[in-house]
Design goal:
Number of strands: 13
Strand order of the largest sheet: 1-2-7-4-5
Distance between the termini: 27 Å
Radius of gyration: 21 Å
Shape: globular
Strand content: 25-35%
Largest sheet: 5 strands, antiparallel
Length: 330
């Protein structure tokens, strides 16, 4: 099943900025063993690709994907300055913002994070740094730098992120991390759903591939062992959209291994609520996965497509209850 161009009304993820470059590295990069105190130094290098940058802002975001719902540790020892020069110490990222970043003079930010022993076992930590600025002669622009570390063995169920199409290293920065985070969230928070995805005794792993040529828009379920689900980068440029599209495509896999659920959906009364505002037609083969995806995570364009303030449960109570009680059993 392919997510068609005419189906969703979403705007694809924000493309790479033509004006701002942000690279982020973690040292040491890991992976790390459980039950070990870890101190990681993150280094961010900001460059201007064209003219000078001004009116700069920094946004820091960190998320831990694990079964323990941990918060990220405190950032310490922030230092920043022009590349090649001595770095100054700052108390906050806001204090470290320069007035300008000029061509040929990258700006470097470094900081340390300590993960206490035993508190972050079996976790994926995704650390994102966003730079927003006014490029010379252009409209305001932003770019992200993403670095992640793995401690122990984060939960992935039967999902496996593999290089059976294009290597994930060729995808835009952050795409792989967002998908891995979505897998961890789905496995940790919705185990009964994942149990259905993984219910076939003969199928083996559900392989997740990066194949932007094969995918028309966000995701494609091929139901083939090498690449059961294929993605382009559009739906993986944020953690929330990644969770949404993974759930949608994994629901197509459920249709293949548990067809009785599709029949139950079609006889549940849910079809009386079609079409769904987030999907362009009333094909039950697509609205079953769409309802499951909306139960887990609303996509980024929900407000514009479905009305600000509306909820999935409020607009489509039969779909919501079927997903909650029958598919996710929560």
């Amino acid at each position: 099943f392919v997510v068609p161009w005419g189906g969703y009304n979403f705007t694809p993820g924000v493309p790479e900025s033509p004006y701002i470059g942000v690279e982020k590295d973690a040292s040491p990069p890991g992976p790390f063993d459980n039950d070990t105190e870890i101190t990681v130094t993150y280094t961010i290098t900001i460059t201007t690709k064209q003219g000078a940058l001004s009116a700069i802002t920094f946004t820091y975001n960190c998320k831990v994907y694990s079964e323990n719902n941990q918060e990220c540790p405190e950032v310490k020892n922030i230092r920043a300055g022009p590349q090649g020069g001595s770095l100054q110490n700052f108390n906050t990222f806001e204090e470290a913002i320069p007035e300008f970043i000029n061509p040929g003079q990258p700006y470097v930010i470094m900081y340390d994070v300590t993960y206490p022993a035993g508190q972050y076992n079996n976790s994926l930590v995704v650390d994102t740094f966003t730079v927003t600025a006014n490029p010379e002669g252009a409209n305001r622009s932003e770019a992200d730098g993403v670095a992640s570390i793995i401690i122990g063995d984060p939960p992935t169920g039967c999902f496996q992120i593999v290089d059976n199409a294009f290597p994930w290293s060729s995808a835009p920065a952050g795409v792989y991390d967002n998908l891995l985070g979505a897998v961890n969230t789905l496995v940790s928070n919705h185990p009964n759903f994942v149990a259905k995805v993984c219910s076939s005794a003969t199928w083996g792993p559900v392989n997740l591939c990066y194949d932007p040529i094969a995918v028309s828009f966000w995701g494609l379920h091929s139901h083939t062992p090498a690449c059961d689900i294929k993605f382009d980068s559009g739906g993986l440029t944020s953690s929330t959209n990644a969770l949404y599209i993974l759930t949608h495509e994994a629901s197509h896999h459920i249709q293949g291994v548990m067809p009785s659920l599709q029949s139950a959906y079609e006889s549940s009364g849910s079809l009386s609520e079609l079409p769904l505002c987030s999907y362009g037609d009333s094909d039950p083969g697509e609205t079953f996965p769409e309802g499951n995806a909306l139960y887990v995570q609303l996509p980024s364009d929900w407000n514009s497509d479905c009305g600000s303030g509306n909820t999935f449960q409020g607009l489509y109570p039969i779909h919501y209850n079927f997903a909650k009680e029958t598919v996710f059993q929560e």
